[in-house]
Automatic annotation (TrEMBL):
Gene3D superfamilies: PPM-type phosphatase domain
Protein name: Protein phosphatase 1K, mitochondrial-like protein
Pfam families: PP2C
Transmembrane regions listed in the UniProt entry: none
Domain spans labelled PPM-type phosphatase: 1-111
Organism: Equus caballus
Organism superkingdom: Eukaryota
Length: 137
């Protein structure tokens, strides 16, 4: 889609692709100047069934985290935390420690099995927790 619209993909020094050498994703809210290069705002979606007795959490992150911390590391950090707020802060701070140059934001949504896989006795409500690094506030 990017090439068909006249855009190009360039790889940065750490091997990450960027639209027109600038944007690290092909779907984005905003970035209006890249819409003519094939960047679209329509999300790619996937539906999965959750099982509250087995599933522990969902973590939503910005690219500033995903380029620095892999999915397994994110899960490991979250599993070490006592509550979703602490987990969101741990993930954002780790990305900053790894040297991210982009914004670092994480939302940790606990499910019914929160803490189950670390033998935790902590119960938590099913509210959402949000953390943004102070670096971009």
């Amino acid at each position: 889609r990017i090439k068909k619209c006249g855009g190009f993909i360039a790889w940065n020094s750490v091997g990450q692709p960027h639209v027109n050498g600038r944007l690290a994703m092909t779907r984005s809210l905003g970035d209006l100047d890249l819409k003519t290069s094939g960047v679209i705002a329509e999300p790619e979606t996937k539906r999965i069934n959750l099982h509250h007795a087995d599933d522990s959490f969902l973590v939503l992150t910005t690219d500033g985290i995903n380029f620095m911390v892999n999915s397994q590391e994110i899960c490991d950090f979250v599993n070490q935390c006592h509550d979703p707020n602490e987990a969101a802060h741990a993930v954002t701070e780790q990305a900053i420690q790894y040297g991210t140059e982009d914004n670092s934001t994480a939302v940790v949504v606990p499910f019914g099995a929160w803490g189950k896989y670390k033998n935790s006795e902590i119960n938590f409500s099913f509210s959402r927790s949000f953390a943004s690094s102070g670096r971009w506030a």
